[in-house]
Write a structure and sequence with these properties.
mainly alpha; Leucine-rich Repeat Variant; four-stranded antiparallel β-sheet; 8 strands; repeat; transferase; zinc ion binding; ubl conjugation pathway
C-alpha cells in the first residue's frame, strides 16, 4: 500500500515470496525522501535500518530537529510530515520499547507543531496511535496516552474524537489482526521468539483497541466493521495463543461483545464454542483462566447450547479444572462457583461427578494455590454436591473417595498425600450437611458408617501415641492435640446448626465424640496423665462442645473429690496446662467447686520436690482466669512467689523461673506486702555488682508489666532512682543504656514526692566511689528545675558544707614554684601556713574529686546550663560565687603545680576535669559580671552582687594565712575580669584606693595590696597612690641589711616592689634613677653573700635587678659582674635544693641573664662582665641541663626547662668532649631538656667526625660510637607496653630513644667509609637495630598490613630526608613521632642498609615483610637510589690515584634508568661493566652486567662480576664499594704488565694479556701475535733476540703449515 491508501491490498511479490502492502508489514515500500531537508534526510533513512540503536538515534535527531523549529511550526515542511506518517505504523510496533516510545513522542511534537496539517493525515496514523495506548510497556503506553490526552482535554472532546475515528481505528485493528508473524518480521534476520513477541504485541493491541471502540463508539456504526473483524480466522485461534496477555484480551473482547451485541455471535456459535469450550480447555490458561471463566459464564447465560449434548459440561471442564486457578487464585474459584450454578440443568451420573471431583481435588492441591484461594475452592467443591448430587443416592464408596478422604486429611493431615488439606471446618461441615440431607437410607447409612470409621481411626491413633520415654513423644502428642482440636471444631460446627437435628449426623457425631472423650480419659488415667495430647483433646471438647462434656459428666470423672493423690499426679504432669485452662468455665457455675479444685492443685504443685516442676505448675495455675483473689490469700503461694522473684533478680537461670515471674505480673496473684518485698529484693540485687545484670532484667520486666509497683513506696523509689543513675555512668554502654531506658519508664509513673532533691543532697555532701557522677546529678537537677517540682535553692549545694570541706585544703602554704605561673608572683613566699598540719585524707568519687570539687563543678555546670543565680536568695548567691571563685583559685594552682592530694587526684583525666571546671567557673563569673552592668559608675559600696563580692573578698583577704591568700588571689582574678570586661578601672579608683588604705601596705593587708596591683595591672600606672607606694618601697630597700628575723618587712617589701614595678612599662618607673641605683647597690650587696639568702629572697632579688635594669643600665660599677656571678652561683648550687625551691630562683636568674644579654646599648662594664664569664656561664648552664627531673612535671618546671633550653641553644662552639654528661639529658623526663641536649649533640657529633676520621687513619685503630650514646639504645620501647592513646602523645621515653638513634646517624653523616664500617660493627655487636625496627613496623602499621600512607598524611620527600626538632615540636605529638620514625627509616636505608636487609630476611612475618617492601619501594627507594647515585658521582669526581699505576674509573650515571656504567681504561679500550639498581633497592640485589671484557679470560671476568656484586650485596649495599672492588681487581691484574713487542699493545685482538715469555730476553708476547710472527717470518724465533722459542711444543707443530 502506498502512502495515502485506505485499504490493504494483497498480491504476489517478487521471487515467489508472499508480500503485503499493509502499513505494518516489513515489506511496505519506503516513502519518498527526495524532498526531505538535508538536515534530517539521513536520520529518516536510518529509520529503515534494522538495528534498534540506529533507529533510536535517528528518532532522537528528528525529535531535536522538530523541537528546534519553534512552537508555531511554520518551518516544518510537508514532506517531513508525509514521510513520518508513512513510517509511524511500523515504528509504533518496533521490537525496541525505546523506539516505540520515541515514535509516539515524535508524533506528539509533530501534532503540536502542525496541528492542521497533521489533522489531514489523521486517518493514516490514528490506528497505530490509539493501539499504542495499549502497549504492554508502561513507558510506551504513557507516551501515546500523554499525546492523546494533550488534545482531548474534556470528556466531550474525547467522545467526539472516538466517534470520529472509530471506523478507521477498527479498520486498523482488523488489518492488524490479519497480520502474521511472517508479514510483520523478516524471518531471515529475526528470531522466532522476537517475531512471535511482535505478532502477539500487535494482535493484543488490536483486541484492546477493538474492545475500547465497543465501549466508547457507536455499535450501530461499528457493526459492519466488527463483522469483518469476526471474520478473521486468526481471531478464533487466539484461545490457544502462547501469550497470556493476548488470551486475556481475546476473552475480554468476547465478553464485551456478549454484553453489548451478543446477537453478532449467534451465527458464529460453532467457532465460539470451539474456541472457548473445546480449544481453551486443552491449553494452559495461565494468566487468563479467570477471564475465560467469566466469558464462559456469560456465554452460557446467553447461549447454553454452546456446551453441546454429547458430553456433560463437567466432563468438558474436567481437564481445565485439574490445572487449578493457574494464577487466578480466589477470583478464579469465585467465577468457577458462579459458572457451576449457570451450567445447563442436566443431572450427571455419579461416576461423572466423581471423576470431576477428582480433577477438582488435583487442581485445589496445586502448589501455586493461595490459602484464600484454596478456601474458596473448597466452597466450590461443596457446591458440586449441592448442585449435581442433591437427589442422587450416594454409596459409601462414593463418600469415601470424594468426602471422607478430605475429612481425614482435615483431621489428620498427611504431608505425603496428594489430597489437598482443608484448613477450616466450614467446608467439611457444609459438605456433610448436604450429603446428610438425602432422605434415602443408602446415603444415611453411608454417612453413619463413614463417621464411625473416622472416630475409630482417631481413637486408635490417640491410644497408640508415643510414651514419654520415646524420642518422638512431644511430636506425637502435639499431633494428637491438633487432631482433637480439629475434631471438636468440626463437630461443633455441625452440631450447632439447626438443620442437623433432622439428619443422622446428630446421633453419630455425638456418639463418636463421646467415645473419643472416654478413650482420652482412660488413656490419661492409665498413663499418669503423661499423654498431654489426650488432655488437649479434652480441653478442645470443653472449649467447643461444653454441652457434650456436661452430658457425659466429664469434669467429675477428671477431678474426683475423694482422690487427692490424683491432684499431685496432675500437677506434676505435662497435661496440667490443658486440663486447667478452662477450669473456671467448665465447673458448672459452682464457685466453691472451682475454688476447691484449684486450691487442691496449687497445694499439690507447691508440694512437688522438683523446684523447676513446682515453678512450671504454679505458673500454669496462677494463669487460670479469676484466681487472683484466691491466690493472694494463700500464704504458702505468696512465700513461694517472693522467693522465686528473689532468685530471678539474683541471676537464677532456670527456664520456668522467668515465665513464673512474668505470670505474677500479668495475673496479679501477689498481695501488697509481697509486691513490696519483691521490689526491695530487686533493688538490693541492683546495688550489688555481681547481680546487677540479672537485676536489670528483672527490673525491666516489672517496669514493662507493672511500673506502678515501684513508685508506691517513697523510700524504695529513691533507692531505685539512685541505683539507676549510678548505672548510667558505667562504661558498659549496653548496661548504661538499659539503665537510662528504665529510668525513663520509671519517670512516667506519678509519685508523691520528687526524689531528686534528696539524691542531690546525699551525693553532693559525700564523695565515694559509689557516688553518682556530677554530670548525672546535673541532668537530674535540670530536669527537676524544668518541671518546677523543686525550688532552685534546694538544687544548689550547701554553702556551709562546702566551706567546711574546703577549709582542710587551706591549712598549708602553697607550693612556692607557683610564683612563676601566677600573677600573684612572690606573694606565694609570704603565706604563713602550718607546715606540720596533718591533712585529713579527703573522700573522693570515682573520678578523684573531693567534696568541694564535686560541689564546685556541679555549681559551674549548673550555671553554664542556663540556671539563673537570681533564683536563689541574695546571701546564698554571694556565698556560692565566693566559694566558686575560691575553689577555682585553689584548683588552678593544683593544675599548675601538678600536686597530689589536692581537690582533685592526680592524673591526665583529672587535669582535663580541673581545666573544664576552671573554664566553666570563669565563664560563670564573666556572665555574672556582664549582668551587673558597667562598673565605671560604681561607688564600690552598692548592693550589686559584684560589689558585695569584692567587699566580702577584701574582708576575707586580711592576714597572711592560706585562706587569706586565696581570697586575695580570687579578688585579683575578679578585678582582672572586670578590667577586661569594661576596658578600664572605675572612675573612683583613686578615691577608693585612698579610702581603703590599700597602698599603705600594712602587714595584714599585704595580700590585698598584691591583689590590687595584679588585678588592675597597667590600669594603676597613672595612679598617684601607686606611684607613692613604688617610691616608698624603693626608698626602703637600702635600709634592709638582709632577710633575717631582724628585718621581717624586707621580703614583703621586695615582693610588693616587684609587683609594683610590673605595673609600669620597662624604664618608665616613676622613681628617680638615683634611688633605683641605690636599690641596685643594695640588691648586689645581698648577692655578694649568696649563702645568707634563702630561695625566696634569691628569686625576688634577681627579679628586682632585672626590673631596675632598664633604668640603670648606663650605671658603671661592679654591680653587673656581681649579678652575673650570683646567677652562675645559683645555677651551680641548684642541684642541692629541692625542685620546688630551686625553680623560682633558677627561672628568675635565667630571666635576669637574658635581660642582661639583651639590654640595648649596654655600658662597657656590663659587656666585659658578660664576656669574661662566658665559659663559666656555659659550664653552669650545662650543669643545669644535667640536673635530674621528676617524672611528673609541673607548669613551673616546664617554664624553667623551656627558658633553659633557649639559653642552651645560644651557646656557641661547644666541643664534644665537653658534653660527656649531656647524653643522659637526652633521656630526661622533660621534653625541653631533651630538645636542648639533642640540639647540642646534633651539632657537636658531626663536627667531631673529621678528627675521628683522621685519628683512625693515623692511629690505625677502630672507631667506636660513644658508650654513653650506645647506652641510650638499650632502653628500646616495647609497643605492647603502650596503648594507642599513650603512643599518640609521643611518650618522652620513646622520644629519647628515637632521638638517640638520630644522634647515631649524625655521627654517620660526616664519617668516612672506614669509620662508618666501624660504627656498623658496634651496632651489630650490640644487636641494637632489631628493637628499633620492631617498634617502627608496629607503630607505623606494617605489622597489620596497614602501613602509614605518607602522601595522604602530608609527608614529603623533604620530611623523609630531614627532621627538625624545632618544627616537629609545633606539630601534633603523633605526627612528630611518625615524622621521626620515617626519617630514621630513611637513615637506616642510607647508612646501614646491610643490617636492615639482615633484619628483613630474619623477619618471621611474611605479611610484615611484604608491607615493608612495598612501602619502602614506594616512598624511600627512589630517594635512596638518588642518594646512592649522587654518591657514586661524587666518588667518581674525587677518585684517588693510588700507587700511580691505577687508572681512574670512567663512570656514567643514568638516574632515569637507575644504571651506572663503569669502564677501566686499558690502552685505547676500556673494561666496562654496568650496574642496574632495582626499584626495591637496597632489599633486592644490584645486578652487575658485563658490557665489554678486556685483558682477562672469560672465567676470571665472570668471577670479578660476581665479586663486585657480592661486595655490594654483603658490604652494606654500597655502590661505591662495588666500583672500588672492580677497579682494585682489574688494576691488580694489569699491574706489572708490559706491552707486547709485536703489536705494541697490552691487550690483544682476542682481549687477552701478553702471556708467552721468551726464555732468553724475558719479554712477553700475545699468543696470537706470536703465531702471526711465526707464520709471516717463517721462523720459530723471538722477534727481539732472534733466539729460538721451542717450548710451544706439539700444539705449535700441529698448527704449522704443511710446507714447513
Amino acid at each position: 500500500m502506498f502512502p495515502g491508501s485506505k485499504k490493504a491490498a494483497h498480491g504476489a511479490g517478487f521471487g515467489g515470496f508472499a508480500t503485503s502492502s499493509t502499513t505494518l508489514s516489513y515489506l511496505t515500500p519506503p516513502p519518498d525522501f527526495s524532498s526531505i531537508p538535508q538536515d534530517v534526510v539521513v536520520p529518516f533513512k536510518n529509520l529503515l535500518k534494522k538495528a534498534s540503536t540506529t533507529k533510536e538515534k535517528a528518532l532522537q535527531d528528528i525529535l531535536a530537529y522538530v523541537r528546534g523549529l519553534g512552537p508555531d511550526g511554520q518551518a516544518l515542511e510537508d514532506p517531513v510530515i508525509d514521510a513520518y506518517v508513512e513510517l509511524y505504523p511500523r515504528l509504533s510496533i518496533d521490537d525496541s520499547a525505546r523506539v516505540r516510545e520515541l515514535a509516539h513522542q515524535l508524533l506528539f511534537n509533530l501534532l503540536n507543531a502542525a496541528k492542521k496539517r497533521m489533522a489531514k493525515k489523521l486517518p493514516g496514523f490514528v490506528g497505530p496511535w490509539l493501539a499504542g495506548t495499549f502497549d504492554r510497556d508502561k513507558r510506551v503506553s504513557r507516551a501515546a496516552t500523554d499525546a492523546l490526552a494533550s488534545f482531548l482535554q474534556t470528556k466531550e472532546k474525547e467522545e467526539a474524537f472516538w466517534k470520529a475515528v472509530q471506523t478507521r481505528a477498527l479498520d486498523f485493528a482488523t488489518e492488524a489482526m490479519k497480520e502474521t508473524s511472517d508479514t510483520l518480521s523478516d524471518e531471515r534476520s529475526t528470531t522466532k521468539q522476537d517475531s512471535d513477541a511482535k505478532y502477539y504485541r500487535v494482535v493484543g493491541a488490536s483486541l484492546c483497541l477493538a474492545l475500547n471502540l465497543m465501549r466508547k463508539g457507536d455499535m450501530d456504526i461499528l457493526e459492519g466493521g466488527l463483522t469483518s473483524y469476526l471474520e478473521v480466522d486468526a481471531l478464533w485461534a487466539l484461545s490457544k495463543a502462547e501469550d497470556g496477555f493476548v488470551r486475556r484480551a481475546f476473552y475480554q473482547f468476547l465478553h464485551g461483545l456478549l454484553e453489548n451485541k451478543h446477537e453478532m455471535l449467534e451465527p458464529r456459535l460453532q467457532q465460539v464454542g470451539k474456541a472457548l469450550v473445546a480449544d481453551s480447555m486443552k491449553k494452559s490458561q495461565a494468566g487468563s483462566a479467570t477471564d475465560l471463566l467469566k466469558v464462559l459464564m456469560l456465554l452460557t447465560k446467553r447461549f447454553p447450547q454452546v456446551w453441546g449434548t454429547q458430553k456433560h459440561p463437567l466432563q468438558r471442564l474436567q481437564q481445565f479444572v485439574a490445572q487449578g486457578s493457574q494464577g487466578g487464585s480466589e477470583e478464579y474459584w469465585q467465577s468457577f462457583d458462579r459458572l457451576l450454578q449457570t451450567l445447563p440443568e442436566r443431572t450427571p451420573s455419579a461416576e461423572v461427578v466423581s471423576a470431576f471431583l477428582s480433577s477438582m481435588r488435583k487442581g485445589i492441591a496445586d502448589r501455586l494455590e493461595t490459602r484464600t484461594g484454596r478456601y474458596q475452592a473448597f466452597q466450590s467443591y461443596a457446591r458440586v454436591f449441592d448442585v449435581f448430587l442433591s437427589h442422587s443416592p450416594l454409596s459409601a464408596t462414593f463418600l469415601e473417595e470424594n468426602l471422607s478422604c478430605l475429612t481425614r486429611q482435615y483431621l489428620h493431615p498427611v504431608p505425603e498425600s496428594s489430597l489437598p488439606s482443608p484448613q477450616r471446618p466450614e467446608f467439611v461441615a457444609e459438605a456433610w450437611m448436604i450429603v446428610a440431607r438425602h432422605s434415602d437410607n443408602e446415603t444415611r447409612g453411608a454417612v453413619t458408617e463413614e463417621w464411625q470409621k473416622l472416630g475409630s481411626a482417631f481413637s486408635s491413633r490417640m491410644s497408640n501415641s508415643l510414651p514419654e520415654v520415646s524420642e518422638g513423644y512431644r511430636k506425637s502428642q502435639t499431633a494428637i492435640a491438633s487432631e482433637g482440636e480439629r475434631w471438636f471444631a468440626l463437630a461443633a460446627n455441625i452440631l450447632t446448626r439447626e438443620s442437623v437435628k433432622t439428619t443422622p449426623l446428630l446421633g453419630v457425631i455425638t456418639d463418636t465424640s463421646a467415645e473419643v472423650l472416654r478413650g482420652a480419659l482412660d488413656l490419661l488415667t492409665r498413663r499418669n496423665f503423661k499423654p498431654f495430647g489426650a488432655a488437649a483433646v479434652i480441653q478442645s471438647a470443653f472449649r467447643h462442645c461444653p454441652r457434650l462434656c456436661t452430658d457425659n459428666e466429664l469434669l467429675a470423672s477428671l477431678y474426683p473429690p475423694d482422690q487427692t493423690e490424683t491432684y499431685s499426679v496432675i500437677a506434676a504432669s505435662p497435661s496440667l496446662p490443658y486440663l486447667v485452662s478452662d477450669l473456671n468455665t467448665i465447673s458448672g457455675g459452682t464457685e466453691s467447686r472451682f475454688e476447691k479444685i484449684w486450691t487442691s492443685l496449687v497445694e499439690a504443685a507447691l508440694g512437688l520436690s522438683d523446684r523447676p516442676s513446682a515453678m512450671a505448675a504454679t505458673r500454669v495455675l496462677i494463669g487460670v482466669p479469676s484466681v487472683a483473689t484466691s491466690a493472694q490469700q494463700l500464704t504458702g503461694l505468696q512465700g513461694f512467689l517472693v522467693s522465686a522473684w528473689k532468685e530471678y533478680a539474683n541471676g537464677g537461670n532456670q527456664p520456668p523461673l522467668k515465665d513464673l515471674c512474668e505470670a505474677t505480673l500479668s495475673y496479679d496473684p501477689l498481695a501488697k506486702e509481697s509486691l513490696e518485698a519483691v521490689a526491695a529484693d530487686i533493688i538490693s540485687a541492683l546495688e550489688v555488682p555481681e547481680t546487677t545484670m540479672p537485676a536489670i532484667v528483672a527490673l525491666e520486666l516489672v517496669l514493662n508489666k507493672r511500673p506502678e509497683l515501684l513508685s508506691a513506696n517513697d523510700g524504695l523509689h529513691v533507692r531505685l532512682v539512685t541505683s539507676l543513675l549510678a548505672l548510667t555512668e558505667l562504661s558498659d554502654a549496653g548496661l548504661s543504656d538499659k539503665a537510662r531506658r528504665l529510668r525513663l519508664l520509671l519517670d512516667e509513673q506519678p509519685t508523691g514526692q520528687n526524689p531528686v532533691a534528696r539524691i542531690l543532697e546525699n551525693h553532693l555532701g559525700e564523695a565515694r566511689t559509689s557516688s553518682l557522677e556530677v554530670d548525672t546529678l546535673i541532668q537530674q537537677a535540670l530536669a527537676t528545675l524544668n518541671s518546677g517540682a523543686v525550688p532552685a535553692e534546694d538544687i544548689f549545694p550547701s554553702s556551709t558544707v562546702w566551706m567546711n570541706e574546703l577549709s582542710c585544703f587551706l591549712t598549708r602554704s602553697p607550693n612556692p614554684s607557683l610564683s612563676l605561673t601566677s600573677s600573684m608572683g612572690g606573694a606565694y613566699f609570704l603565706v604563713q601556713g602550718n607546715p606540720n598540719a596533718n591533712l585529713p585524707l579527703p573522700g573522693r568519687d570515682s573520678s578523684g574529686r573531693s567534696i568541694p570539687a564535686r560541689m564546685a563543678l556541679f555549681t559551674a555546670k549548673l550555671l553554664s546550663s542556663g540556671v539563673q543565680l537570681s533564683s536563689v536568695p541574695p546571701e546564698f548567691q554571694l556565698e556560692l560565687i565566693y566559694l566558686l571563685c575560691l575553689t577555682e583559685a585553689i584548683a588552678r594552682d593544683q593544675l599548675s603545680a601538678a600536686q597530689t592530694g589536692g581537690l582533685w587526684s592526680d592524673g591526665p583525666e583529672a587535669e582535663a576535669d580541673v581545666q573544664e571546671f576552671c573554664d566553666l567557673g570563669s565563664a560563670a563569673v564573666r556572665a555574672i559580671i556582664a549582668d551587673c552592668g558597667n562598673w565605671t559608675d560604681w561607688s564600690m559600696s552598692g548592693n550589686s552582687l559584684v560589689e558585695r563580692l569584692i567587699n566580702f573578698m577584701l574582708h576575707e583577704a586580711i592576714g597572711l594565712s592560706p585562706a587569706a591568700f586565696y581570697a586575695a588571689k580570687s579578688l585579683s582574678s575578679l578585678l582582672q575580669v572586670l578590667v577586661q570586661t569594661h576596658g578600664g578601672a572605675p572612675t573612683i579608683l583613686e578615691e577608693w584606693l585612698v579610702k581603703l588604705g590599700i597602698m599603705r601596705a600594712a602587714p595584714n593587708t599585704t595580700f590585698i595590696t598584691a591583689a590590687f596591683l595584679t588585678g588592675f595591672g597597667e590600669a594603676l600606672a597613672s595612679s598617684k597612690a601607686t606611684a607613692t607606694l613604688c617610691a616608698r618601697l624603693i626608698s626602703e630597700m637600702p635600709g634592709f641589711s638582709g632577710f633575717s628575723d631582724q628585718s621581717p618587712r624586707a621580703l614583703p617589701s621586695l615582693v610588693l616592689l616587684n609587683l609594683c614595678i610590673d605595673v609600669y612599662e620597662a624604664g618608665e618607673v616613676p622613681v628617680e634613677t638615683r634611688k633605683q641605683v641605690l636599690a641596685l647597690q643594695q640588691f648586689t650587696r645581698w648577692a655578694d653573700v649568696p649563702e645568707e639568702l634563702g630561695y625566696q629572697p634569691a628569686a625576688e632579688t634577681c627579679k628586682a635587678i632585672a626590673r631596675v635594669l632598664p633604668s640603670t643600665k648606663n650605671t658603671y660599677g661592679p654591680y653587673w659582674e656581681q649579678a652575673i656571678k650570683y646567677c652562675i652561683w645559683l645555677w651551680n648550687r641548684a642541684a642541692e635544693d629541692k625542685p620546688d625551691e630551686r625553680l623560682p630562683y633558677v627561672y628568675a636568674s635565667l630571666k635576669l641573664m637574658q635581660a642582661l644579654r639583651s639590654a640595648e646599648d649596654p655600658n662597657d662594664d656590663l659587656e666585659e662582665a658578660l664576656a669574661s664569664h662566658r665559659e663559666a656561664e656555659t659550664a653552669a648552664l650545662i650543669a643545669l641541663l644535667g640536673i635530674p627531673r621528676e617524672a611528673t612535671s609541673s607548669m613551673s618546671s616546664q617554664l624553667v626547662d623551656a627558658l633553659l633550653a633557649r639559653a642552651v641553644t645560644k651557646i656557641p662552639n661547644v666541643q664534644l668532649e665537653d658534653l660527656g654528661d649531656i647524653y643522659e639529658s637526652v633521656a630526661s623526663e622533660s621534653r625541653e631538656i631533651q630538645r636542648a641536649a639533642f640540639g647540642l649533640l646534633h651539632k657537636a657529633l658531626p663536627a667531631a667526625q673529621e678528627e675521628i676520621n683522621l685519628a683512625v687513619v693515623m692511629d690505625k685503630k677502630a672507631a667506636n660510637l660513644p658508650d654513653e650514646l650506645l647506652s641510650l639504645l638499650l632502653n628500646a620501647p616495647n609497643p605492647a607496653a603502650y596503648s594507642d592513646e599513650d603512643l599518640a602523645q609521643f611518650p618522652v621515653a620513646v622520644r629519647s630513644y628515637l632521638l638517640a638513634w638520630h644522634l647515631v646517624f649524625d655521627a654517620y653523616s660526616k664519617a668516612s667509609f672506614r669509620v662508618r664500617n666501624d660504627y656498623t660493627d658496634n651496632l651489630k655487636s650490640g644487636k641494637h637495630l632489631d628493637p628499633l625496627l620492631r617498634f617502627l613496623v608496629d607503630v607505623l602499621g606494617h605489622a597489620l598490613a596497614r602501613a602509614l600512607d605518607l602522601d595522604r598524611e602530608g609527608f614529603t620527600a623533604e620530611h623523609i630526608r630531614s627532621y627538625s626538632i624545632d618544627l616537629a615540636d609545633s606539630e601534633p605529638a603523633e605526627r612528630d613521632m611518625n615524622w621521626l620514625l620515617i626519617h630514621l627509616f630513611y637513615l637506616i636505608l642510607k647508612y646501614i642498609p646491610g643490617m636492615f636487609k639482615m633484619w628483613y630476611l630474619d623477619c618471621p612475618s611474611k605479611q610484615t615483610k611484604n608491607t615493608v617492601q612495598s612501602w619502602m619501594e614506594r616512598f624511600f627507594s627512589p630517594l635512596i637510589i638518588a642518594d646512592a647515585l649522587d654518591e657514586v658521582v661524587d666518588w667518581s669526581s674525587k677518585q684517588e690515584q693510588g700507587d700511580g699505576e691505577t687508572e681512574e674509573v670512567i663512570v656514567k650515571v643514568s638516574k632515569t634508568s637507575r644504571e651506572i656504567t663503569a669502564g677501566y681504561p686499558v690502552d685505547d679500550d676500556a673494561a666496562t661493566i654496568s650496574l642496574h639498581v632495582p626499584k626495591s633497592y637496597p632489599l633486592d640485589p644490584v645486578d652487575v652486567v658485563s658490557v665489554k671484557r678486556v685483558a682477562v679470560k672469560e672465567d676470571k671476568w665472570q668471577s670479578w662480576l660476581k665479586a663486585t656484586k657480592a661486595v655490594i650485596m654483603f658490604g652494606n649495599c654500597s655502590l661505591v664499594d662495588g666500583l672500588m672492588a672492580f677497579r682494585r681487581n682489574i688494576s691488580l691484574a694489569l699491574k706489572g704488565q708490559e706491552e707486547c713487542a709485536i703489536c705494541y699493545s697490552i691487550i690483544a685482538q682476542d682481549k687477552t694479556l701478553p702471556d708467552k715469555k721468551c726464555g732468553t730476553c724475558n719479554h712477553f708476547f700475545h699468543r696470537v701475535c706470536l703465531y702471526k710472527w711465526f707464520q709471516n717470518s717463517g721462523r720459530n724465533t723471538c722477534p727481539l733476540c732472534r733466539n729460538a722459542i721451542d717450548y710451544l711444543g706439539s700444539d705449535t707443530k700441529r698448527r704449522r703449515p704443511e710446507h714447513e
